[in-house]
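Hello,

Our lab assistant flagged a job as stuck in the queue for most of the afternoon. It eventually completed. Since we weren't sure the result was trustworthy after the delay, we are filing this so someone can double-check. Below is the sequence as submitted and the structure that was eventually returned. Let us know if re-running is recommended.
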Amino acid sequence: MDFTATEIMTVAASRLLRDDTVCFVGIGLPSTAANLARLTHAPDVVLIYESGPIGAKPTVLPLSIGDGELALTADTVVSTPEIFRYWLQGGRIDVGFLGAAQVDRFANINTTVIGAYDSPKVRLPGAGGAPEIASQAKEVFIVLKQSTKAFVGKLPFITSAGYLDGGDARERAGIPGKGPTAVITDLGIMTPDPVTRELTLTSVHPGVTVDQVREATGWDLKVSPDLKTTAAPEPQELAALRDLQARTAKAHGQSGGGEG
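-- returned structure --
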């Protein structure tokens, strides 16, 4: 195949983002996928970042939410409190696009610690705005690479709520957003069961087997009876992605492509 696992993951994630939607974007893989969507099938998507840019159209991928490229290319820039109070809590965000260090079977996210909170094995970057995005956006996409270290049976810490312990737990907790509707990895795509809310494998990427996905999952992964194969990236999708990464690498003085 003439594409990598990371490329099919990024393309598959970007395809989920519809045109004319308002998307609150996380840095890293979510930003790569969201900007790929903007450069291909969703030119009128409105990308919002935590630092205040609205309608950002970066020519290269940002290094952080404070990257000046976001403000320079945005339609406008507002304060962070306005982003959260007016846009997010006001119900104006259609999609939250998030990454994660770990997720569990109910799409809860951990970006805080690995191990005991008071004495962790690994101290992760932390929450940022993800808990608010996960709870307030109308729906959430999560994108990350798949392994048993990332897809765990029980999270050591829940940073951002998915469906908590499943079923109607999210609604009972009073969390307003719909929650995660897709988890996209380098192996396939998972969506929540409509009743139990447990993540179910609904699509495998080209060349990937169900056994490979199960081996990279830290619980007994359920598989849809209507399992599909993800459509391979189109030449124009790959060209746009690789061009974006090449520009990013050149701008940031890197020798290879950027993340995603």
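-- support follow-up --
The delay was a queue issue, not a problem with the job. The result is valid. Residues 256-260 have pLDDT under 50 and may be disordered. The radius of gyration is 18 Å.
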